[in-house]
Amino acid sequence: MAELNARPFPPGEYPVVVVGSGPGGLQTGYFLSRLGIEHALISRDEAPGGMFRSFPIYQRLLSWTKPDAPFEPGTREYEWYDHNSLVAEDPQHRAAIVPFMDRSYMVPSRPEMEQGLAAFAENAGVPVRYGCTWESTRRDDDGALVLTTSDGEYRCTAAVFALGVTDPWKSPIPGIEDVPHYAEACAAREYEQKRVFVIGKRNSGFELADGLLPWARQVFLGSPRPVATSVIALSSVRVRYLQPYEDAGLGGGTFALDVALERIERTASGYRVVGSGTTREGPLDLDVDEVIAATGFATPLRDLTELGVRTVAQGRIPALTPYWESEAGSGIYFAGNATQGAAGLKKHGIGASSAAVHGFRYNARVMVRHLAETHLGADPRRERVEYGDLASYLLREATRAPELWAQKSYLARVVGADGATDVLPLADWLDHPTTGSRAIAVEMNAEGEIYPTAYVERGGEVREHVLPPHHLNDYTGEEHVRELRSVL
Amino acid sequence: MPEDLAESLSRFNLFADLGRPQLEAIADPEWEHQFSDGERVLRRGMSGAGFYVILDGEASVQIGGDELNRLRPGDFFGEVSTLLRAEPTADVVASGPLRCLEIPGPKLEAFLLDYPRVMFRMLQTEARRLQEALEWRS
Hints:
heterodimer, A: about 500 residues, alpha/beta, B: alpha+beta, 5 helices, 6 strands
């Protein structure tokens, strides 16, 4: 009983309650503590790590952490090379994944990631009430949110749900109910000598294909949309995607099919997959030994839709405001992978990195500051920039700031007329700019060219100024400074 | 369970000639976006915009806050700036919750060439808009 009493955050009233102890929840708890905001962080798990306690199923991440890089671990710039560690204000709490990597690969294994997250929670001091399961939610007449949990009720002004996108989700194909989901896939050796059809051509589908390459006799990946190999070649997921593709190109045992599935039938020896080609029309039926549904995951929203949380992606992801709130003023916020529900501008079709740690760790910092200001009346401290130095300052940020590079056209460095500066969601600032404010973002066009873009408010209108790229991505030179000064 | 995206698309004139496999190929969940009341979907003068089809809700076409037109489910916008690679000349603002399918600007050309029947119906709509504009002038 004494041990139970020692658990932090007993049920009661808190300004903010955070649910989840994966990277999104830990990062949120960290920034709330740094702002001195009283909160409770609860989790149904027994230890930190969230999805990384069990996934990826074949134990190797997609996103890289490079132990040796042009900048030292602990610096702000090192975050460019470390897509997996959570971010911290104190340099000694940064790059927490790095010491656990055995360097057999530049992407961490699942256990290395889990250990790194646990070390961050321990060293940066992010207490969590483990073994406390959120069960239901309601809004009281006074507007307070009430979370009922296995330990009792929590009342709060704002709640942050860092639930991951972790509920196995299957697309509505007749017969798919008899097929195991990615989350239930067996060890790769179990597929020895088998023909396997994987439904889905996204991360989890290609992770399975990659894992099965040494074992299965033949692997088919099938979904309606073609894979954009030119896009994948530039992204961190190429590690998983392109290996099976090479096998396909060399006439090997892998096929990536553009097919709309009509149904899946059981046969005496396995399954028959029945569909129609999309990119190339015509019937496409296959007899296989095993089928695995790598059809993705959904955010476990429980009863939140009854409180007005809308969704996108066929109900899988909460639809969010640019500050990752379900509806402005609702006090229902999301952190972690679900922050992809705020799509941002997607200029030139380039999306944000909010579905990955290296994107959502920065969203958490921006969200916590916004939540504290709008719901709790806090006034977070902001650095000030001298006007004479403004162009150089903005260009330095565009050259160095990891959050602007991770979240292109999504997060922007904004400087107000009084010189106060902050990182904000670009979409929201463009719609509600303060008088005389300016912003800079790092952007990319469809050809893959990267360049800074400045935004200047004048008379209620924001003007966009696209600045030239630089061969070493260094925008601090005289040419850029002169051009930016002329538009500021 | 929200309505299947391919099912939503099948009701619109723009996609009326497509079969189920093609609709499923277009119905990319990553292309579905939800906007809150007052949020801008298309921003006047900003580069890199896309092409949008309204799935649910209404949007207001505005210049300097003055409404020029209202758009409803099945209507599309953003094609002029995307095809001409120019910045939009008006804002499009969500009026109430708005759900759209977005085809990213750089993908529109390949999309229209892949689905010529969609391109034909789009052209018909453009012709109708031009006709209305000419009638209004005369």
